[in-house]
Amino acid sequence: MTGIFGISIQGLLGQLLVGLLNGSFYAILSLGLAIIFGLLNIINFAHGAQYMMGAFLAWIGMRYLGVGYWWALLLSPLLVGAFGMLLERSMLKRLYKLDHLYGLLLTFGLALIIEGLFRYRFGISGESYPVTELLAGGKNLGFMFLPKYRVWVVVASLTVCFATWFVVERTKLGSYLRAGTENPQLLQAFGINVPLMITLTYGYGVALAAFAGVLAAPIFNVNPVMGSNLIIAVFAVVVVGGMGSIMGSIVTGLGLGLIEGIVKSGMIANLLSSLFDSIPVARSLVYPIKLLFSPEASAVTIFVIMAIVLLVRPAGLFGRER
Amino acid sequence: MPPVKMNTVAWGLLVVFGIAAPFLVYPVFAMKILCLALFACAFNLLLGYTGLLSFGHAAFLGTAGYVTGHTVKLLGFQPEFGILAGTATAAALGYLIGSLAIRRSGIYFAMITLALAQMVYFMCLQMHFTGGEDGLQGVPRGKLFGMIDLMHPLYMYYFVFAIFLAGFWVIYRAIHSPFGQVLKAIRENEPRAISLGYDVEKYKLTAFVLSAALSGLAGATKTLVFQLASLTDVHWHISGEVVLMTLLGGMGTVFGPVVGAIVVVSLQNYGANIGEWVIVITGTIFVICVLAFRRGIVGEIAVLFKR
Amino acid sequence: MKRKLLSALICAALMLQVGATAGAATKVSDGVVKIGVLTDMSGTYSDLSGPGSLIAVQMAIADFIAKEKPDFKIEVISADHQNKGDIAAIKAREWIDTEKVDVIVDLVTTSTALAVMKVAKEKNRITLVSGAASTPITNEQCTDINVHWTYDTYALAAGTGKAVVKQGGKTWFFLTADYAFGKSLEKNTADVVLEDGGKVLGHVLHPFPAQDFSSFLLQAQASGAQVIGLANAGNDTINAIKQAAEFGITPKQSLAGLLMFITDVHSLGLKATQGMYLTTGFYWDRNDETRAWSKRFFEKKGRQPTMVQAGDYSAVTHYLEAIKAVGTDDTQAVMAKMKATPINDFFAKNGTIRVDGRMVHDMYLAQVKSPAESKAPWDYYHIRQVIPADQAFMPLSKSTCPLVKK
Questions:
Q1: Is there a contact between B111 and A239 if contact means CB atoms under 8 Å apart?
Q2: Which long-range contacts (CB under 8 A, 24 or more apart) does C135-140 make?
Q3: Contact A198, A180 (CB under 8 A)
Q4: In a domain, A300, yes or no
Q5: Under CATH, which number does the domain C2-11+29-151+286-357 receive?
Q6: Where does CATH 3.40.50.2300 sit in chain C?
Q7: H-type alpha helices, B127-270
Q8: What's the number of domains chain A is made of?
Q9: CB of C211 within 8 Å of any CB in chain A?
Q10: Domain C154-280+364-390 carries which CATH code?
């Protein structure tokens, strides 16, 4: 069976499924970033490091304190979130009156400090974190074997994402948050403790990162650079989705995962080949484009998309320009 | 002390230390500082004076490096032409990226430059002529003007110093010209600049291309100094480093980035034995600068002198 | 600075000509033999080399001083090249220009080895590569003052590749790190597979380094190959193995870890790696000699040594002994002596350095034990086969090194 452009249907389905798994990761990570930016106007470069902290805390808990996975899912985000709130209170607070730029630089510096300390203490090789009993194993779908744990990751991420979206967009608390970004003074005048709200919001965004970290621990090696590898791509997702838009980051995250899956399957490269390879001139012109969509280029896919979206629709797919 | 006199003092110090440097420290180390200082100054033209934060300047530094390396090693260009080739390529790339990025502003501008720089990184990784992970090694320094053997450390050093002075002078003149004044106006209040009738887009693009070209000059020279061109110079880490140098040295000052480059490169060099702590210290410097030290070293000195 | 070094070398050469008899003092440049350990101190490969390599070299120096009581001073200096060729080259140049380093060792990661070899050749210094793997080091890029000590991709392919094919793994699919080392390893192994009557069904290149191998493993699974060859190392190999288990790819298809170190097995655990074949130049538990040495290493490091670290010790010892024998640290004289002397220590028996710089010695085909078979931590391998030196490495007849006279 030749399938679509040389990729079998089974192969494609497999890649799409894996893409969905990755996409849910992107979604939950970019959700945290989007919340922090949307509501605080801060670009949290430390997000990757906080994700890594979440994973490490889970590992430390398992290794030294006998804390199991399920407890880690709860405790790690709480602890890292609290740490985030501390950062906000002590440092970020002072930058609100200034250009966004400074918030970004501060969190960039914080990310370096956190990563450097973890690298010093734990080395870079990474530690193993086993999948918890309940979620081990998987189901044979015929075209691929689907690990239970990965399904859990999708379910957990999407649940948290939609719960967050619901709270922000559909509840009273959410409306306070949204009001706070539009006009904090007015909201303060209504008696809402806006600074506290901001602190808690940052804490929540950080906790989301840590939650993603715990989810990631059994899949990737827990190592100090796991965050910095991801952070740039996640930023791109947030930008494409629309910097403050919750739904935007969720949808874009999932979408990116799926698109990456298609690119990795090699379908787009094959498509371009079949269209242009017969015409010599076109072939050499298309070569760099083909390079950008080859399976090896899946890491760059998001940037290509980001460049295109920003030029066409600058506020992002779902965003509102500020 | 009036600013003009202070500038003269600064220029004087720069020239004196520049001439004495190869006798005080390892010449290659001094050349590295010069190249990165030029890079930081070029970057500052955009950040400190036009108010545009680019996260993709590595693209210009690194691409110029590869082009120079390739022309000198494989096409047999003389060093001065190799450097010219690299600089020209960076300028062209700057025009391309600039025209796309200038349409947006603020964080979106930064993100576009980052995205485009990542694509450049990826191309450099994949294309054969860059040597991928290994990079271009064994780049010969050649003979300047066909006569002066640049393998001799002192000759090479003064060549690099001359290039640095030339590039720095261009930036200095640009900043203190009417063109520079318009850039500052754009940084302070873009809508007003527009209302005054200035074609803001054209000014921004010109500043961008100039910044890119001079970054390319720095990258091209660096390739000849170290005799290799590698992926490190197109990686986003170095885009972050140049922000640090500029911030630390003093964002809106002319000499700030030079000081910033000296500090950062020295830190990396002498801190090589302490491994990960360099990362922590770099991060700490970032944090301190942002919270309490936003004017940077030179900025603070300038304020001190004004009293 | 440079002039002083030059005159010192000239003096040394002159004195050599006058006749370095057994009673003459050893003339070393600047009075000190300075060894530079340039390795990955904190990155992907720091466990298999890094600080452990430095320890091994320090042991070599201490043991040499205790045994031979040389009349020259020996110093060691180290640095982290972060697996980047440019950082390594710059450091090497600086060391030679300002620190009077006479020899540079370890050099894990091919790009650093190649970059430093170039600089060293330009400045006439010996390099002893223990960490890097790719065959160009002794082929297109060979130099006459470099020795590739411990292993290379050809040896890995000849060992693991052959063994797996012989076990019945006839169809292969490669999961390859998308850079020179990965591609080299894949090519060497593919050649062996085809030579032995196997088939290569395809390959997929993954970015280096990569975190998530799921989509690449799916392609490997879809190919239906019996063996999935992992042409990568370090964390990439570890993650690929973990995720292959997660996706139910093993045990139906078997994984061939084309480059694996005991530190990887330790990290993954025996459950995940049992039954896997790997080729190594050294195993700590092979015989009494290796056990004795490794015990001393373990006391300092808390981990058993990898072949890279053991190789560093062996290389430095051989180098120092050559200096003592010829009475000078002049590069050409020492290298000639090193190539003329066989290596017989706990690391290698009847090892010799060929004209292309390749140190040929026996390699070992190991198979990872099951958890039940392992009696103690680090008791991980069965040594299934000794691959004799002349079969383990690429024969000179196939070499593309310009120094090899055909």
A1: yes
A2: C135/C184, C135/C188, C135/C394, C136/C110, C136/C180, C136/C184, C137/C110, C137/C113, C137/C357, C138/C354, C138/C356, C138/C357, C138/C358, C138/C394, C138/C399, C138/C401, C139/C356, C139/C394, C139/C399, C139/C400, C139/C401, C140/C400, C140/C401
A3: yes
A4: no
A5: 3.40.50.2300
A6: 2-11+29-151+286-357, 154-280+364-390
A7: 153-175, 178-188, 190-195, 200-226, 236-249, 256-270
A8: 1
A9: yes
A10: 3.40.50.2300
Question: Could you tell me whether strands C171-177 and C227-231 are parallel, antiparallel, or unpaired per DSSP bridges?
Answer: parallel
- Tokens coding C46: 């720091």
Nearest-5° Cα angle at C12, C11 to C13: 90
**pTM, 2 dp:** 0.85
B26 to chain C: nearest residue by CA?
A: C98
- Closest to B217 (Cα-Cα) out of B160, B152, B259: B160
In the sheet where C381-387 sits, what is the strand order?
A: C277-280, C363-368, C381-387
The neighbouring-strand residues paired with C228 are C173, C255
Query: Cβ–Cβ of C85/B134 closer than 8 Å?
Result: yes
DSSP letter assigned to residue B255: S
pLDDT in tens, C18-34: 333 344 567 787 789 99
Task: Kindly state the tokens that stand for C168.
Answer: 């019945």
Write the pLDDT tens digit of every residue in C32-86.
Answer: 999 999 998 877 788 889 899 999 999 999 999 999 998 889 999 999 888 888 8
Domain membership of residue A106 as a residue range = 9-224
Q: Is B274's Cβ below 8 Å from some Cβ in A?
A: no
Hey, is the C-beta of C87 within 8 angstroms of any chain B C-beta?
A: yes
User: A124 and C268: CB-CB below 8 Å?
Assistant: no
Shortest CB distance from B123 goes to which of A108, A120, A291? A291
- How far apart (Å, rounded) are the C-alpha atoms in residues C151 and C170? 25
As a residue count, chain C comes to 406
**Residue B95 burial (10 A CB sphere; 0-12, 13-18, 19+):** middle
Residue C20's H or E segment, with its range, is none
Task: Identify residues of A whose CB sits under 8 angstroms from chain B CBs.
Answer: 43, 91, 94-95, 100-102, 104-106, 108-117, 119-120, 232, 235-236, 239, 243, 288, 291-292, 296-297, 299-300, 303-304, 306-307, 310-311, 314
Using one digit for the tens of pLDDT, what is the confidence trace for B159-198?
999 999 999 999 999 999 999 999 999 988 889 999 999 9
String of DSSP letters for C296-338: HHHHHHSSPPPHHHHHHHHHHHHHHHHHHHHTB--HHHHHHHH
Residue type, B230: S
Residue of chain C whose Cα is closest to the Cα of A228: C211
B282 inside 8 A of chain A by CB: yes
C94 touching B (Cβ < 8 Å): yes
Name the amino acid, one letter, at B251. M
CB within 8 Å: C222 and A226: no
- Report the distance separating Cα C348 and Cα B152, nearest Å: 43
**Cβ separation C118–B272 shorter than 8 A:** no
Instruction: Tell whether A73 is covered by a domain.
Output: yes
Minimum-distance CB partner of C214 among A11, A18, A221: A18
Q: What's the CA gap between C223 and A144, in Å, rounded? A: 12
Q: Is residue A149 part of a domain?
A: yes
Query: Does a structural domain hold residue A294?
Result: no
Q: Compute the distance between CA of residue C117 and CA of residue C129 in angstroms, rounded to an integer.
A: 9
Three-state SS at C394: coil
B28 to chain C: closest CA residue: C94
User: Residues with Cβ < 8 Å from B307, sequence gap 6 or more?
Assistant: none
Find chain C residues with C-beta within 8 A of A221's C-beta: 211, 235, 238-239, 242
Query: What are the tokens at C95?
Result: 């060391």
Interface ipTM: 0.84
Q: How far apart are CA B49 and CA C95, in angstroms?
A: 40
Which residues, including other chains, have CB under 8 Å from residue B204's CB and lie 6 or more apart? B50, B52, B98, B102, B186
Residue C278: which H helix or E strand, with range?
Answer: strand C277-280
Q: What is the dihedral of CA A62, A68, A71, A75, to 10 degrees?
A: 0
